[in-house]
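Question (not urgent): is this output format expected?
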Amino acid sequence: MKRSSAVVHVALLFLVAVVLSVYSYAATVSPRSLSRYPKKSKSVTESTRAQRRMAQLRHSRRVTSSRVAARRIVAAKAKGTTSTTVKRTTTAKTAVRHTRRTARHRYYERFTTSPFAEDATTGDITTGEDAVVREAAINALGNMNGTVVAIDPGSGRILAMVNQRLALSAGATPCSTIKVPVALAALSEGLVTKQTKVMLNKRWGLTMKEALAHSNNAYFEALGRKLGFEKYSYYAHQFGLGELAGLNIEGEHLGTFPSEPLPVKAGGVGKMCSFGESISMTPLQLGALMSAVANGGTLYYLQHPQSAEDVASFQPKVKRQLDIAPLVPEIMDGMDGAVRYGTARRLHASFSEEQVLGKTGTCSNNSGTRYGWFASYANTQFGRIVTVIFLQGNRQVFGPKAAELAGTFYRNLYDHSYFAARVPETQSKANGSAVGAPR
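Got this back:
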């Protein structure tokens, strides 16, 4: 028994010695020797991108909390808020005001008018029209909900009027086509020249050529404010707005020009001059004005012959002479630029053989209908022909679309050798013959 207890005692002493030796070895090992990498610094520097993202997240949390606070205010009011609750929601109200300032409001306008129409030519009186021009206009319009009016600017004779019900209607907002008479009025008053750069902010400005080509609203709003309503109204009536454009054309309605300026809260005279707010213009009024631009200042009464006899005895009727001959070259570059590289450049997809000058217009009536205008004239060596295309419908309708149809119209005329006229322009003015009409 004594021997066995001695053996046990020796074994315990050996075990204790082993444990102590292991512990002493572990205590001498350096922590650095157990790691392959150096100890990282306690200070952390974020990248610039990370800092921007963190700032965005902090901002989004504030906005989110303010929206939650707004909902709490509404719920408290519904239940009957106590004075203590009102005190607690003071900060929340401030957050709500912050949210209202920073929130983005997006307005999506819904259109209900169809851009297509069937039998648009039903009821048209065509006996006294130019057959080639009318056929070209019908093919260009197709089944679109609109009208095409073609005019000889040297006489005021309507060569073709497709969808006469719409062409003779009370009209619509002229949209950006109103920029043409505004430009002429500003030039007449000496407010600007073709080279004048109107500064729209501290670093950026436009000339009239650029503003017409790209249909810049801010530029023409600035001109409108300089003109003032009285002068704008005077020139608008001189150019034929607010009065009948035709002479004894049955069914023609009168467009409207307001007797008072648009309220300042609604945009004032600036908005009236940028896209014709509160003004109603008919396709015939726009056609008569564009004819005066094309011929250098003679505003003719538009006439629509009803028979071959009317065509044979046709006599131009002058309404008034406009003093715009020196000003027309000032706007020609802008109208040419609109077709070549601006808002009407779609026209060149179909036609580029002859120079075409024009102006587009796009807007809506806020009642489910969108408008697309394009007024232009082909400037050829044998004379000129004025075309007004007016469309109405949904988002498929806009000014560049009308310009595209005008390109198809001019292409149709070109393919029928209409611009290879044998009748000089001077003779066209004398006898009322259309450009390109056979002798």
